[in-house]
Amino acid sequence: MKRSALAVLFGFAATFAIAAETPAAAPAKADPAKGKAIVDTVCAACHGADGNSAASANPSLAGQHAEYIAAQLAAFKKGERKNAIMAGQAANLSEADMKNVAAYFSAQKPKERAGTDKALMEAGKKLYRGGNAAVGLPACMACHGPNGAGMPVQYPRLGGQHAAYVVAQLNAFRANTDRKNGPMHDIALKMTDADMKAVAEYIAGLH
């Protein structure tokens, strides 16, 4: 009886040791092809089949950092970022779906745009590159880069984004209701409506 009990005990111990030595499976890599299938049926109507949105109310996602896109989709699904349309679209996406969609959009080439108001673009350039020391406004390029490329994981790409969309998001950050982000809320509070429009015009032409 004792021998059987010891055999079982050692058997459990051996099984545990083997499990402990077995490395955890690496997370599955995102699949852009699967992402494209979702984009074609769910996302393309608003964001374009290649992520270059034709409507200024909808952001262009081509070339955006995959980590950022996936994080925003997750935020919409959780209700942390509020938008009725996007909440409905993200509700049926799994974590893998979000990563696949993000990988597809990230791999697309963003179209170059340009601001339409030269005076605003010049004012926006000063704010984007140098901020406004008088009100404690930091330069946008400190986080989003001189060409608006941003930094993967940390800061989104802004270059070439629709000016109207950038203004809308700055206002959302300022309101701190539908879109909450502590640092961007503080920054938006220091910007006038004219500042936002100027920066947005300059960002639209960055590439």
Order of helices and strands: HHHHHHHHHH
Which residues sit in consecutive blocks of at least 5 with pLDDT less than 50?
Answer: 5-20
Give Rg in angstroms.
23 Å
Query: Can you tell me the number of structural domains?
Result: 2
The CATH class assignment of the largest domain is Mainly Alpha
Query: Structural class, judged by helices and strands?
Result: mainly alpha
Textual characterization of the structure:
The radius of gyration is 23 Å and the shape is globular. The longest helix has 20 residues, at 2-21. α3 packs across α4, α6 (118-130) packs across α10 and α8 (163-175) runs antiparallel to α10. Helices cover 57% and strands 0% of the residues. It is an all-alpha fold. The model is unreliable at 5-20 (pLDDT under 50).
